[in-house]
Amino acid sequence: EGSSPPCCTFISPFHRPRCLAAAAPAGKAKLTHPGKAILAGGIAGGIEICITFPTEYVKTQLQLDEKANPPKYRGIGDCVKQTVQSHGIKGLYRGLSSLLYGSIPKSAVRFGVFEFLSNHAKDESGRLDSTKSLLCGLGAGVMEAVLVVCPMETVKVKFIHDQTSANPKYKGFFHGVREIVRAQGLRGTYQGLTATVLKQGSNQAIRFFVMTSLKNWYKGDNPNKAINPLVTGLFGAIAGAASVFGNTPLDVIKTRMQGLEAHKYKSTLDCAMKILRYEGLAAFYKGTVPRLGRVCLDVAIVFIIYEEVVKVLNMVWKTE
Fold first, then answer.
1. How many Å apart are CA 263 and CA 161, to the nearest integer?
2. How far is CA 201 from CA 134, 142, 246, 268, in A?
3. Domain identity same for 221 and 181
4. Which parts of the chain are Solcar repeats (predicted)?
5. Sequential DSSP letters for the chain
6. Which of 152, 58, 61 is nearest to 110 (CA)?
7. Which of 253, 89, 84, 75 is nearest to 157 (CA)?
8. 204 and 289: one domain?
9. Which of 116, 203, 217, 218 is 20 to 30 A off residue 93, Cα-Cα?
10. Which domain holds residue 206?
């Protein structure tokens, strides 16, 4: 009498034998604890901004260089040249402190909220579908806009714009914040909130949608399949490019609403209408090239560092 293999004596369409379940290559995907996401996101955001800030500076200068006056800059190269001639290499890092102080909590909030929401949106196998990732990304973007991005970006834009004036009045980050709050109240750091919420919400919705779609495609039926950091970076760059083409007009409006001449606009809609009327449709895509370079690099770096830091945290911080 031949003996049956252990635990596989009977196979029915309703009861999958335990040995087959154990042998299946695809298990349940591991969830990332929001606490790990907050820490890893903060580290990733801080490192990334130190690498990519000069492109953010150039993008902001070109967006503020309105056609209404004769343009001060002839393009990206001319903007870099004039800045270095007037202020030295460190001129390209003017406003870094305000962005650095905000980038760490911004990325921490973004990834923390995304992981919190996605952990509740994943199916039984731990897989997050593309539609749900878009909604989770939207939620993460709105939260980071309200808690961190709007005040941080307002201060950054004012710093950069202030440098173009004949007598700059802000001596540093804390002095600048103090002057802005003294002159305009706390509300002065929340200029362009509506545009910022629209921009960040759509930004993260697009990025996490594209990133999740690409990761799901790459992993196939195995949710725990490891992804090489270079592949993660490539997926991040694609997600970043998608978000640039999807919401650069909102970024231009947000920048104008936060500049030193924001008083010219009654609302986000008024700002959009005035740009369209006086500068034409092309003005909504000012600074696209430097923004494309910065954002693709930005998103690629952030996702690579984030994923690698989470791997390290999983080894030293047991949450399951």
1. 14
2. 10, 5, 12, 16
3. no
4. 32-120, 131-217, 227-312
5. -PPPPTT-S---SS---HHHHHH-S--PPPPPPHHHHHHHHHHHHHHHHHHHHHHHHHHHHHHHS-TTSPPS-SSHHHHHHHHHHHH-GGGGGTTHHHHHHHHHHHHHHHHHHHHHHHHHH--TTS---HHHHHHHHHHHHHHHIIIIIHHHHHHHHHHHHHHTSSS----SHHHHHHHHHHHH-GGGGGTTHHHHHHHHHHHHHHHHHHHHHHHHHHHTT-TT----HHHHHHHHHHHHHHHHHHHHHHHHHHHHHHSTTGGG-SSHHHHHHHHHHHH-GGGGGTTHHHHHHHHHHHHHHHHHHHHHHHHHHHHH----
6. 152
7. 253
8. yes
9. 203
10. 191-308
Alpha carbon distance 192, 259 (integer Å): 9
Q: Of the candidates 70, 94, 118, which is a domain's last residue?
A: 94
**Helical packing angle, 268-279 and 193-219, nearest 10°:** 90
Task: Indicate if 203 and 177 belong to the same structural domain.
Answer: no
Q: In angstroms, rounded to a whole number, what is the distance separating the alpha carbons of residues 212 and 232? A: 11
What residues contact residue 185 under an 8 Å CB cut-off, 6+ apart? none
Residue type (1 letter), 177: V
| Tally of domains in the chain | 3
Cα–Cα distance between 102 and 21 in angstroms, integer?
A: 46
- 164 has pLDDT over 80: no
Q: Could you tell me if 200 and 142 are in contact, meaning their C-beta atoms sit under 8 angstroms apart?
A: yes
Q: Residues 287, 62: contact at Cβ < 8 Å?
A: yes
Q: What is the pTM of this model?
A: 0.72
> What is the Cα 48 distance to its own chain's centre?
11
Residue 10 placed within a domain: no
pLDDT tens readout for residues 51-69: 888 887 888 888 787 654 6
Token output for 206: 């697009």
